[in-house]
């Protein structure tokens, strides 16, 4: 059996901690058994490790998440990287073609697709392994996992079983009902409907045949080259709606979607993450602070206060699902990002009278890591090293660097930096347009950079 | 008649906007008639201008406030600067000696001392001018202004008149009662007691004679040199308690102490200062944001949310007077300061493995201004100019500077900078101990700096 975890896109429902560059699954807002802060992805990965499934797991993701995933889960995690964001059908199709043509997985092997961040008990993953037997038993094309509803929620999708479904290990699915009102939900629960938790199980052959029937390539490299031809559609609409035999398995354990501040804070073991203090009469309030300055709460109750370099949210917990209402107007660049080589944080942005943009960042390159050998077309940079040791590549020279050194890097200059001891520096970018996309990379690997420069 | 405004010390009751370097009177949280944000000091100064009293006014202050006062009120304001912070008696004595020995004010002239930031109607200042006549009429040593109480407050001090006080323009004071409980306050109001609003009127000669009787110098320069001999005591304890004949005048107009967030926000004409947004169902909430990032309020009510580079406060308005309870533990350096030459903001602070401190600031020098010619003993600095034009003095050289230039200034190097066009720069300080106090100034005036260097 293989698992495909879908690492979904950006979302602002957990603004200001989540943004276009940081999806909610990467926020370190949960706590492990040692009370260390971990992200939703890290929590799921620990669980997969514990049930022995992590080595059979592939994460379907986009380019923008690769560095964060390696950073949070380690370099040995299997990634299938979309060349562009489309939707869940293309992402799952690509992962299936990877299993088929690169990993040469047998067409009879069962594959389970699931979100990267379900907040569940470990037994959820045992239930997933049962899908293998259920698919063999039922001969269904698709097997889903449904969660036994705990209340008539109007927020979830429901899997409705056939009335005459009499199997023991699974039910045959009649149809789906998305977000019914409360009254409908009550009726559905009476009919043994389950909350759909977004897990799809199928034999690899089912999806490969589907690709063939749609005239799409089954070879991974071919599919990646024709990725734009894939329908920009969800797996639910493209596949599930057109599948005849679907069964579902009931998971009767803890399951929660931590998609909003009120649901997330219910699962936090601590009321303050980061610098913060609360008066004794502050009640049922959570502070999540990624800034260097303290947050003080005085006499408040039922609030979530979240702060990051992107902004500060002060929300009544019950109001927090409505966050998109008010932050629509904020459309600024991400102010903090984790990368393969470390992290950066934007300290300041301003414009000169000549309409030139100035962006000041603090950049950290972890011990042993390096920035790629690259140049920018439209900006100059000044690097001031405040900490650490290493080497800088500037066009055809490699120089040792130390704390206190400053380097001016005009537009067009190839440059790279390697930290032999963790480096922190202040980077000042200036130019008519300072955007992350203005980067031309020649080489990422430091020893190759050294070779190239030595040859010059 | 002369006025002495007491510009009081630091306070944290309006944290995080007020701090050791920024007293509450300097926060631009009020609005003038054009809806521009102004500080309490600026509001009072406008009122004094309008009633024609500003040129007769002297501000008694400490060194740390000089630059801010010039910056907010203009260079023509009269300041009497204490050599060290002691208490209100020494501050008033110093100002009196200044009027006597430097300004040669007649000993019969009436002086009124008042706080720098009363939130009052203009008629309050007309009432102050009445003190002159009242002192002549009553032959009292001290004349106070009392505000007619609007409710039996337990927060204020009360001026209690003599029972047989039958004058028309003033009352003879029997005694004072500090912060009575509500029941006592009711009784005091019944006896025509007034709230004491901290105004003291007296003939200059009264105070000068008092200095003589205490064996203290009456000459300003002598007093400043012996400032440490002055009793560290308040004017109330040192003078008022020992004065026999005190009268009071009633001011029957608007008067308020904007000392806490709840009282202050009641006087704001706008609910958001700085970057912020509120959902439609947010009620009776004020946002004061000095940060560059937005604050979003969602579904909350009766909150004050205040943010500065020092921290973020989220407080129920009624709880805000208790702020000192929770911020006692925060004892960090001020993160933003206004100066004679512009302003700076701390962007980042960290330590290296070798326990060296690194402080990164954004510094703005306004057009025409300059930093003094100075050096630091314990820190190196790197200046990266991101905006503007001007000149830098480095030891015995003056060089023109432009955007993009970077200067390394090792400890011990004399340096100064002058902005011909507003300069903004990123300053990185590094050393075993980076504190504001590590500064040795040789000269402040730029043309003198030029002369000195040309002579070398």
- Residue-averaged pLDDT of chain A: 91
- Identify the overall geometry of chain A: globular
Class computed from helices, strands and strand pairing of chain A: alpha+beta
Largest interface, chains and sizes:
A-B, 63 and 63 residues
- Please tell me how large the radius of gyration of chain A is: 25 Å
Determine the number of helices of chain A (DSSP H or I, runs of at least 4 residues).
Answer: 11
Number of strands of chain A: 28
Name the assembly state: homodimer
The biggest beta sheet of chain A reads:
9 strands, antiparallel
Distance from N terminus to C terminus of chain A (CA atoms, Å) equals 50 Å
Strand content of chain A: 35-45%
| Uncertain stretches of chain A | none
Estimated helix fraction of chain A: 10-25%
Question: Which labels suit this protein?
Answer:
456 residues; alpha+beta
Describe this structure in words.
2 copies of one chain form a homodimer. Chain A has 456 residues and is α+β, with helices and mostly antiparallel strands. The first copy, chain A, has helices spanning 40-50, 63-73, 88-102, 123-138, 182-190, 204-213, 220-225, 235-238, 261-266, 323-327, 446-455, and strands at residues 2-6, 30-31, 37-38, 57-62, 78-82, 110-115, 119-120, 142-147, 157-161, 171-178, 194-203, 246-251, 255-256, 272-273, 276-278, 286-289, 295-298, 303-308, 311-316, 336-339, 342-351, 357-365, 370-375, 380-394, 397-402, 406-409, 415-431, 440-443. In chain A, helix 3 packs across helix 6. The longest helix of chain A is centred in the N-terminal third of the chain and has 16 residues, at 123-138. Chain A is globular and about 75 Å long. The relative contact order of chain A is 0.11. Chains A and B meet through strand 17, strand 18, strand 19, helix 10 and strand 21 of A and strand 17, strand 18, strand 19, helix 10 and strand 21 of B.
């Amino acid at each position: 059996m293989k698992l495909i975890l879908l690492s979904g896109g950006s979302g602002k429902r957990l603004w200001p901690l989540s943004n276009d560059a940081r999806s909610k699954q990467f926020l370190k807002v949960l706590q492990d058994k040692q009370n260390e802060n971990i992200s939703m992805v890290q929590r799921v990965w620990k669980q997969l490790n514990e049930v022995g499934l992590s080595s059979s797991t592939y994460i379907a993701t986009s380019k923008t998440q690769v560095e964060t995933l390696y950073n949070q889960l380690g370099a040995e995690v299997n990634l299938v990287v979309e060349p562009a964001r489309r939707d869940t059908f293309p992402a799952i199709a690509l992962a299936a073609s990877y299993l088929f043509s690169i990993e040469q997985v047998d067409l009879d092997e069962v594959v389970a697709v699931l979100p990267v961040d379900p907040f569940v008990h470990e037994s959820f993953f045992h239930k997933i392994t049962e899908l293998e037997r259920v698919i063999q038993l039922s001969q269904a094309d698709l097997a889903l996992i449904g969660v036994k509803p705990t209340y008539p929620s109007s927020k979830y999708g429901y899997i409705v079983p056939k009335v005459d479904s009499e199997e023991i290990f699974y039910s045959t699915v009649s149809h789906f009902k998305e977000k019914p009102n409360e009254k409908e939900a009550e009726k559905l629960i009476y009919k043994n409907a389950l909350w759909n938790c977004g897990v799809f199980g199928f034999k690899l052959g089912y999806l490969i045949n589907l690709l063939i029937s749609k005239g799409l390539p089954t070879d991974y490299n071919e599919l990646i080259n024709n990725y734009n031809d894939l329908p920009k559609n969800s797996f639910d609409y493209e596949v599930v709606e057109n599948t005849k035999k679907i069964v579902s398995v009931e998971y009767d354990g803890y399951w929660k979607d931590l998609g909003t501040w009120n649901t997330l804070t219910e699962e936090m073991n601590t009321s303050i993450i980061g610098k913060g203090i609360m008066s004794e009469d502050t009640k049922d309030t959570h502070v999540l602070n990624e800034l260097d300055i303290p947050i003080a709460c005085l006499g408040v109750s039922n609030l979530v206060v979240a702060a990051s370099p992107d902004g500060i949210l002060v929300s009544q917990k019950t109001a927090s699902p409505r966050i998109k209402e008010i932050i629509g107007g904020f459309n600024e660049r991400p102010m903090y990002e984790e990368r393969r080589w470390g992290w950066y944080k934007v300290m300041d942005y301003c414009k000169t009278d000549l309409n030139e943009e100035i962006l000041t960042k603090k950049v950290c390159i972890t011990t042993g890591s390096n920035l790629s050998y690259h140049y920018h077309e439209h900006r100059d940079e000044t690097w001031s090293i405040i900490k650490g040791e290493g080497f800088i590549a500037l066009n055809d020279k490699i120089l040792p660097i130390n704390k206190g050194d400053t380097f001016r890097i005009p537009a067009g200059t190839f440059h790279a930096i390697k930290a032999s001891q963790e480096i922190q520096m202040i980077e000042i970018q200036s130019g008519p347009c300072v955007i992350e996309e203005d980067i031309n990379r020649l080489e990422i690997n430091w020893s190759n950079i050294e070779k190239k420069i030595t040859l010059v």
